[in-house]
Amino acid sequence: MIKIDLHCHSIYSQHPLWGNEAFGTPRQMIKKAVAEGFNGLAITDHDSVKGTLEGIKCARNFKDFLLVPGTEVSSAGGHILAIGIKECVPKNLSVPETIDKIHDLGGMAIAAHPYAGFPRFSSLKDAAKKYRFDAIEVINGGAHVSQNRKAYRVAKELDLPYTAGSDSHYWKDLGLIYNIIESSLSVPSLLNAIKKKKIIVRGRPLGLYSRMRLGTKKVIRSLSSRI
After folding, report:
1. Is residue 201 within a helix (H) or strand (E), and if so which, with residue range?
2. Roughly what angle, to the nearest 10 degrees, separates helices 50-59 and 26-35?
3. What is the CATH number of the domain that holds 191?
4. 62: domain range?
5. Distance of alpha carbon 74 from alpha carbon 76, whole angstroms
6. What is the pTM of this model?
7. Residue 223 pLDDT grade (very low, low, confident, very high; cuts 50, 70, 90)
8. What's the mean pLDDT in 121-133?
9. Which helix H or strand E contains 43, and what residues bound it?
10. Buried b (16+ CB within 10 A) or exposed e, 81-95
11. Count of the separate structural domains present in the chain
């Protein structure tokens, strides 16, 4: 069994307006995950695999820990988690094109926070129903409970596997949302277990405190860069 967060961001996640938008090196994230009793983590930076590749190297120093490669792809129709890949997928492709690219690289395409609202404007909405996703994220740390419930209902309606991810942009938020997966410590085994629905999701949205803490850190960094 693996306890793992399948959606989180390192310092390599970038935002078009304010640049770096996450706080935490891959090493910090792995150490926090281990402290929380996790034996796995998927680092899924926005349109980048730098964090996940660095994380794979770091994870070699931790016994019985699986770093699952991945990225969060900005498709033209919304964000898509690509789990199990070590290469970037081009941005702004259509949803089906993005899914095909992920599959070509041997990865799993997961609809990320499909019904989340502000500040996640790049949500898939009902595109999650139209295209052949491998799974749907039904617990996202930045989404409201009602939005996560809608994603869960869609996953049940489509008979698709579901996953959970903190979507943390600050390493201290790791540990509150996770998956328990009936898998060995290997990427092929984990992907296969998710597809077979051998997964239990746990946790709830991160809450106001985490959002305010992250927002405050962003403001402080922005002001510091201007001084």
Report:
1. strand 199-202
2. 50
3. 3.20.20.140
4. 2-226
5. 7
6. 0.90
7. very low
8. 89
9. strand 40-43
10. bbbbbeebbeeebeb
11. 1
